[in-house]
């Protein structure tokens, strides 16, 4: 299993914005102005780099991550010769891993 941390997500600038901005129903219908708005949020985000690296490492297929669209990430992954790890956990699974463990019984 790959080791991936989502500690950076606590400082995500998108946390205070509408998620639909970052996960539009269809990228083809996203206006240039909307895309520019999202990219400007990501450009100012303190965790842009780890966000993008996470999406590249896990093969995240949807949404804007690190200011990069799915199509752009596919090109980046191809340029890096990356393969999607078959055991790559879904984001919701990672969030579950972040829940503190119950203390071991004595
Ligand atoms: S870079 Fe963009 S998508 Fe990634 S955490 Fe920051 S605001 Fe969110």
TrEMBL record:
GO terms for cellular component: cytoplasm. It is found in: Cytoplasm. Its main location: cytoplasm. Its cofactor is [4Fe-4S] cluster. GO terms for biological process: cell redox homeostasis; negative regulation of DNA-templated transcription. Binds 1 [4Fe-4S] cluster per subunit. Following nitrosylation of the [4Fe-4S] cluster binds 1 [4Fe-8(NO)] cluster per subunit. Keywords: 4Fe-4S, Cytoplasm, Disulfide bond, DNA-binding, Iron, Iron-sulfur, Metal-binding, Transcription, Transcription regulation. The Fe-S cluster can be nitrosylated by nitric oxide (NO). Upon Fe-S cluster removal intramolecular disulfide bonds are formed. Residues 13-75 form the 4Fe-4S Wbl-type domain. InterPro entries: 4FE4S_WBL (IPR034768), Whib (IPR003482). [4Fe-4S] cluster binds at residues 14, 42, 45, 51. It holds the Pfam family Whib. Residues 78-106 are annotated as: Disordered. PROSITE patterns: 4FE4S_WBL. Belongs to the WhiB family. Acts as a transcriptional regulator. Probably redox-responsive. The apo- but not holo-form probably binds DNA. This is Transcriptional regulator WhiB. The lineage of its organism: Bacteria, Bacillati, Actinomycetota, Actinomycetes, Streptosporangiales. The gene is whiB.
């Amino acid at each position: 299993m790959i080791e991936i941390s989502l500690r950076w997500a606590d400082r995500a600038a998108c946390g205070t914005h509408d998620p639909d901005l970052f996960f539009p129903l269809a990228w083809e219908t996203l206006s240039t102005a909307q895309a520019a708005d999202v990219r400007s949020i990501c450009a100012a985000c303190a965790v842009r780099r780890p966000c993008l690296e996470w999406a590249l490492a896990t093969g995240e297929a949807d949404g804007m991550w690190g200011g990069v669209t799915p199509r752009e990430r596919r090109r980046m992954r191809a340029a890096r010769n990356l393969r999607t790890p078959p055991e790559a956990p879904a984001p919701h699974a990672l969030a579950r891993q972040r829940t503190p463990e119950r203390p071991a019984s004595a």
